[in-house]
Structures are given as C-alpha cells and as structure tokens.
Design brief:
Length: 164
C-alpha cells in the first residue's frame, strides 16, 4: 500500500529516534553495570529493549506503506557520566520523542492515516511512562542525594558457598 511521503518521513524520523535511544539506553546500562549499579542497569537495559520493540513497529509500518526504513541515520547519543547526567540525557531524548510523536499524530490524522497515528499513540504512551520514571528518579536523587540514591540500586550477591 502506498503511503503518504510526509507520514513515511515522520515514521522514519521516529525510527531514527528509537535507534538512537536503543544505543543510548544500552550504553548507559553497560556503564551502570560496570559501576555496580546492577538493579538500575537491568531496568535501563529493559528500556533499551522497549525502544527496540518500537523500532520494530515503525519498521513494519514503513515497509507496509512501501517506504524504506532508514537505519543509516542516528541522532546524537548523549552519554552521562553520573547517574544524574544519565537520567537527564535520557529524559531529553524522551521529551524530544514525545514532542515528535504528538506532531506526527496530528499530521497522520490530517492525512487520514489512522493506523500510523495509532502506532504513534501507542509509542507515545510508552514514552510518557519512561519520562515519568525518569522524573521520579531525578526527584529521588534531589531529595536523597546521589550517594544514598545509588545505595538503593546496588544489588548485593551472596558469596558462593560451594567455592573453597
């Protein structure tokens, strides 16, 4: 089915954002794990996989509309060094996505492409949950301070009693 070029461009632009978010979240997850923030690393890794599912939805929709998904382009990956910097960087990418998704829904509905608008709305709901989580974590850091906050995201492992 032939899709509207402007709709396909919006879908591709959001695909670029999702591919960027996959990389950013995955790198933050690896950095968090390296620093010993294992519970946080697991959560962030799952966020990366959520973004991958979004990329898959967008890819399928672009292909259905006879478009070509653009996997060659990425936006700037923002890498934080501290947990606060990571959350702020992730929040920026989510805020940009929410704005783009809202604009896209309007364009898609005006062009009569309700299915693409529904895809964007489903992704929008997930991104709003992501940003709510990030806002909550940033508020906790502000109230507790980074050291105390970080003590809540470290997972202690028990020593292996079978080892000599």
């Amino acid at each position: 089915m032939q899709g509207d070029p402007e709709v396909i461009e919006f879908l591709n632009e959001q695909l670029t954002a999702e591919l960027t978010a996959i990389n950013q979240y995955f790198l933050h997850s690896k950095l968090q794990d390296h620093k010993g923030w294992t519970k946080l690393a697991k959560y962030t890794r799952d966020e990366s996989f959520d973004e991958m599912r979004h990329a898959e939805l967008l890819t399928d929709r672009i292909l259905l509309l006879d478009g070509l998904p653009n996997y060659q382009r990425l936006f700037h990956v923002r890498v934080g060094q501290t947990v606060t910097e990571m959350f702020r960087a992730d929040r920026e990418i989510e805020a940009e996505a929410i704005d783009r998704l809202r604009r896209g829904v309007e364009v898609m509905r005006s062009k009569g492409d309700i299915t693409s608008a529904n895809v964007f709305e489903a992704i929008l709901a997930d991104e709003e949950q992501h940003i709510d989580y990030l806002d909550t974590q940033l508020e906790l850091i502000e109230k507790l301070g980074e050291p105390l906050y970080l003590s809540t995201v470290v997972e202690q492992s028990q020593p292996d009693s079978t080892m000599p």
